[in-house]
User: Which sequence fits this backbone?
């Protein structure tokens, strides 16, 4: 932290930590009694106000550390607060109630578990277990899971929980027509099943605690006695159940201080309700509202660019934001146009190296992406350059579950004797192969000293399996034979994509309604794209093995790579914001699902991104992205046009693509169109690894086709070179067009 005579208060006798605040911040810190709302733009010191307020509470002996409840959004803020408090105490702070909503609630719930029919040792279920349990409950109720996928109910249950609605509070108006109006009953059955098993799902942590505080005045009074002060960061992203919990706890002393910024509300898809800000003033009449208007984080151009962008949103609460920094005239925001995502990764890599050479620490540099799959290109580049990095709030690309699964499929494809890989995928997606089937397979393998794949084949032939499991396993083994045979003809990229589809793996995620599923599918597409960068399957597999190996165990200086969502509250000297292209950012899914509201949330996300930067923000857009070995062109994000010109310096690098035999589409000319990203195939030059095994004439809807495995059918839709076919003797499927013949 900097020296801090930025705004010395009159009199000068204030403790050092107060001297480091401006007048409004000081007001927010020193107004200790009664409800307080700090509503202010990015980088105005809201989090600093919260940490200082905690310190001030202790210094003025208003509270002991354990009497302050603080809800923070990032681990960094929690750590800072803990350090600050420890420094004041002169010893490590213990027994602090400091953390995320869920962590705090879990801790409280352990003390009162019996009030909701659990014991204090209850298990917190992960999503997989939740889903399994929900399916059991639905099965027991005789629900046709094909007609009513469990994911739909799961999402509904989550929505109810986010809004603090236990089964007995679901009103007819809240009910849905899911499963013929049985959603509420199934929800009740699921909750009762959880109780029997002494389990709570994630949403239960909040829901149960709210129910307990509502229904047990003596418990509530107890917590009121304990928590004299409540501090809440990133208040704009609380959902209803979190709000209810806070309101209940704050009723006692009414010393609740919430800080937030309506322009940074980016979690509506997780149930966050911006209305909670408006509700605050109603529920806590006479609440003091403090506005902070000086931004201490970013240079003038960065702030100007971010403010200009967010001004395009309607329905804002409205705030003034000016720079509070002395070095206000910093670098303009760079907007760099590039040929493709690889070149984008190269540009970022070069600038990072240059920054390192001029003495910047990696810890002060971040790459913030809109979608998880985007990290792959940067990770590969950073590894090549030997730049240590961490993926904050997530896994490195090749460590993600779906990528490990896909890798396992390819390993079996390349090397049928890879038992570990085969074991990973043989029952993923579920093929009805339980423990018994697996044991039999292993017994055969051990007895005959053969690989598992061969043992599996023997198991199928020998009649050791029956019914669906036998069919499914047999189909998988035949699949591998077919895909392997297709390799020389179709090439590894096409075969890999086909394999993931035909094995049912892609469908597994398509049918998954969890919020992560679409991101996983995007990762799989990116995986295929990565594959296309290699001449052979073996080359790719070796590359990934080596990449996985370079897991530096150093705690040294590292660059941060993360999604924009994970970057909230953080700051860096230099921030890269790649992939500002229509469809990717703003993300097409957000707009399809949320319309104009979705677009505004995307814009807030862009605002969050820009305002993470202290000194330099580098935004970029690639004109092309490779998809399944083909090119699709992109339109630059409309957000680029919304950045005020006076704060932006535009740079192009089309020259770098000169030696390529590809026609540069003029996507950067008619910029700013409102069209969604539209894929378009471009004939690529000889440097492209995977030539497209094209049909002379592209297939069209209505064409009758023949597929070696699925037989005759009719094309129902065409998505680049992937085609949906309504087969006559088999379920409708999506297949690669190269596997189809015109019939
Ligand atoms: P965000 O909306 O992104 O969460 P914030 O409002 O919480 O931002 P902080 O992270 O608290 O802002 O502060 C932004 C930066 O400005 C930090 O580096 C902080 O140390 C610095 N800062 C805050 N107040 C002052 C001040 N009065 N003088 C100097 N620097 C300050
Ligand atoms: Mg903050």
Assistant:
């Amino acid at each position: 932290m900097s020296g801090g005579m930025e705004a010395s208060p009159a009199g000068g006798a204030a403790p050092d930590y107060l001297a480091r605040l401006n007048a409004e911040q000081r007001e927010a810190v020193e107004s200790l009694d009664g409800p307080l709302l700090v509503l202010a733009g990015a980088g105005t010191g809201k989090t600093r106000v919260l940490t200082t307020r905690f310190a001030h509470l202790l210094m003025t002996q208003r509270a002991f550390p354990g009497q302050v409840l603080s809800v923070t959004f990032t681990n960094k803020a929690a750590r800072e607060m803990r350090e600050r408090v420890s420094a004041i105490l002169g010893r490590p702070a213990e027994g602090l109630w400091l953390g995320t909503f869920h962590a705090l609630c879990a801790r409280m719930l352990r003390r009162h578990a019996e009030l909701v029919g659990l014991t204090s040792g209850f298990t917190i279920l992960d999503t997989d277990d939740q889903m399994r349990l929900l399916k059991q409950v639905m099965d027991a109720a005789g629900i046709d899971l094909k007609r009513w996928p469990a994911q739909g109910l799961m999402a509904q249950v989550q929505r109810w929980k986010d809004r603090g609605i236990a089964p007995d509070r679901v009103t007819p108006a809240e009910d849905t027509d899911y499963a013929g109006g049985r959603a509420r009953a199934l929800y009740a059955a699921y909750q009762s099943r959880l109780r029997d098993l002494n389990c709570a799902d994630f949403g239960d942590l909040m829901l149960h605690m709210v129910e307990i505080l509502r229904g047990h005045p003596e418990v509530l009074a107890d917590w009121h006695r304990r928590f004299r002060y409540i501090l809440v960061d990133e208040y704009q992203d609380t959902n209803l159940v979190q709000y209810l919990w806070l309101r209940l706890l704050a009723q006692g002393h009414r010393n609740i201080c919430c800080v937030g910024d309506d322009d940074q509300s980016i979690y509506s898809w997780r149930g966050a309700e911006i209305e909670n800000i408006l509700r605050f003033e109603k529920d806590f009449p006479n609440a003091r509202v403090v506005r902070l208007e000086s931004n201490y984080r970013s240079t003038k151009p960065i702030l100007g660019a971010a403010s200009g962008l967010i001004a395009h949103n309607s329905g804002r609460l409205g705030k003034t934001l000016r720079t509070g920094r002395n070095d206000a005239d910093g670098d303009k925001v760079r907007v760099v146009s590039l040929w493709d995502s690889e070149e984008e990764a190269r540009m970022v890599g070069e600038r990072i190296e240059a920054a390192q050479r001029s003495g910047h620490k990696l810890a002060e540099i971040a790459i913030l992406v809109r979608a998880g799959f985007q990290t792959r290109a940067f990770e590969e580049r950073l590894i090549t350059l030997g730049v240590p990095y961490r993926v904050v709030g997530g896994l490195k690309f090749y460590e993600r579950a779906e990528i490990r699964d896909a890798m396992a499929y390819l390993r079996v494809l390349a090397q049928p004797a890879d038992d570990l890989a085969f074991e990973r995928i043989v029952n993923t997606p579920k093929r009805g192969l339980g423990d018994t089937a697996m044991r039999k397979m292993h017994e055969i393998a051990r007895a005959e000293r053969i690989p598992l794949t061969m043992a599996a084949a023997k198991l199928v032939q020998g009649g050791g399996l029956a019914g669906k499991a036998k069919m499914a396993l047999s189909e998988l083994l035949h699949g591998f034979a077919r895909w392997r045979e297709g390799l020389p003809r179709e090439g590894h990229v096409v075969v890999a994509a086909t394999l993931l589809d035909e094995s049912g793996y892609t469908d597994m995620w398509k049918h998954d309604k969890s919020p992560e599923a679409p991101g996983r599918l995007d990762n799989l597409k990116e995986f295929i794209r990565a594959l296309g960068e290699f001449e052979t399957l073996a080359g790719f597999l070796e590359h990934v093995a080596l990449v996985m190996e370079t897991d530096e165990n150093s705690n040294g200086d590292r660059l941060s790579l993360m999604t924009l969502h994970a970057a909230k509250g953080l700051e860096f000297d230099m921030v890269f914001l790649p992939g500002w292209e229509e469809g990717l950012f703003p993300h097409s899914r957000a707009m399809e699902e949320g319309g104009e509201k979705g677009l505004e949330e995307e814009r807030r996300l862009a605002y969050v991104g820009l305002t993470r930067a202290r000194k330099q923000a580098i935004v970029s857009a690639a004109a092309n992205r490779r998809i399944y070995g083909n090119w699709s062109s992109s339109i630059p994000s409309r957000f680029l046009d919304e950045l005020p010109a006076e704060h932006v310096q535009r740079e192009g690098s089309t020259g770098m693509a000169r030696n390529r035999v590809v026609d540069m589409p003029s996507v950067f000319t008619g910029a700013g169109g409102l069209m969604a990203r539209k894929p378009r195939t471009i004939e690529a030059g000889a440097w492209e690894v995977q030539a497209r095994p094209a049909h002379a004439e592209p297939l069209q809807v209505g064409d009758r086709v023949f597929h070696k495995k699925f037989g005759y059918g009719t094309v129902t839709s065409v998505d680049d070179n992937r085609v949906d076919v309504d087969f006559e003797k088999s379920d409708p499927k999506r297949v690669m067009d190269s596997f189809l013949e015109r019939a």
